[in-house]
Amino acid sequence: MRSIDAGEITGAIRRLCMKANFELPADLCRTIESCAAKEQSPVGQAVLKTVIENYTYAAQNSLPICQDTGMAVVFADIGQEVMITGGDFTDAVNEGVRRGYTDGYLRCSVISDPLRRASNTNDNTPAVLHVRIVAGDRLTLTVAPKGFGSENMSRLKLFTPAAGIEDIERFVVDTVTDAGANPCPPVVLGVGIGGTAEQAMLIAKRSLLRPAGEHNPDPFYAQLEERFLQAVNRTGIGPQGLGGTVTALCVNIDFAPTHIAGLPCAVNMGCHVTRHAQETL
Q1: For strand 71-79 and strand 139-146, is the pairing parallel, antiparallel, or unpaired?
Q2: Which of 59, 128, 236, 258 has its CA 20 to 30 A from that of 111?
Q3: Minimal CA–CA distance to 248: which of 222, 196, 213?
Q4: What's the whole-number average pLDDT of the chain?
């Protein structure tokens, strides 16, 4: 067994909250810059130029890329040979979020009750925590702040098994079309297919962590990703909804086995600021 102190977890989460909000992943920056060179609309080109200037300035000056610094979504892959000492794991994660958002002067957007909306928690806690037990003696933490301009546009549909690829493609495209400018396109689309309803939603969200431009290793799903991307970009919504040929930067599809009687499909939408940062202890 290998011991990891809860204080180390808190420190890592604190760092990751700030890093994710200040620095867009390099792979996504490269994709945006590549798409800017291909955008055919002059207005779309101007928008993407501004997007690039924004995330460059944010990284250079340790400022938030977006004013909505998101709800802290934390993915934790805990090695089965890891023993956490010195405190509770969930408490350590939330303390890291608390310190990261207060020390980094990041906007705190979490309210304590979704219906009686009077009280802000004032430190962006609690985090949304997803834990997997994996092989080994390491702990990998990923912080993915999720803004709600894009989160609000996410969708789930429980198809019957009779549905075909065309039906799923139509659902993905309609989700983007209905969203319009709301999720601050160009977007990153995470698509989860299979499992159960809640599993499909988690698969979709987790797929947003995949490096931009990296396809599903299964050639069948890799081809679907490219097909869906082209279909979304034919909508003409364009950067910030002002028209153009780049509505989505990439489509990431992941899947899971499902029941013979069902076909869940989830779309989790990320804006052009699809942020995440990772550290392994």
Answers
A1: antiparallel
A2: 59
A3: 213
A4: 96
8 to 76, 89, 92, 256, 258: CA distances (angstroms): 14, 11, 9, 33, 38
Return the number of other C-beta atoms located less than 10 Å from residue 24's C-beta: 26
Close Cβ partners of 5 (under 8 Å, ≥ 6 residues apart): 84, 85, 86, 87
Grouping H, G, I as helix, E, B as strand and the rest as coil, residue 110 is coil
Burial 189-211 (b: 16+ CB within 10 A, else e): bbbbbbbeeebbbbbbbbbbbbe
Going along 222-262, which residue ranges are E strands?
A: 248-258
Distance CA(212)–CA(151), nearest Å, equals: 19
The predicted pLDDT at position 193 comes to 98
Neighbouring CB atoms inside 10 A of 280's CB total 11
* Ordered alpha helix ranges (H), the chain: 6-22, 26-38, 42-61, 89-103, 148-151, 165-179, 197-207, 219-233
User: Of 225, 217, 211, 198, which is closest to residue 274 (Cα–Cα)?
Assistant: 211
Cα dihedral value 131, 71, 24, 227, nearest 10:
70
Instruction: Give the separation between CA 245 and CA 91, rounded to whole angstroms.
Output: 45
The encoded tokens of residue 25 equal 């992943």
The SS3 of residue 273 is coil
Reported as a pLDDT band with limits 50, 70 and 90, residue 67 is: very high
Choose among 191, 203, 189: nearest CA to 165.
191
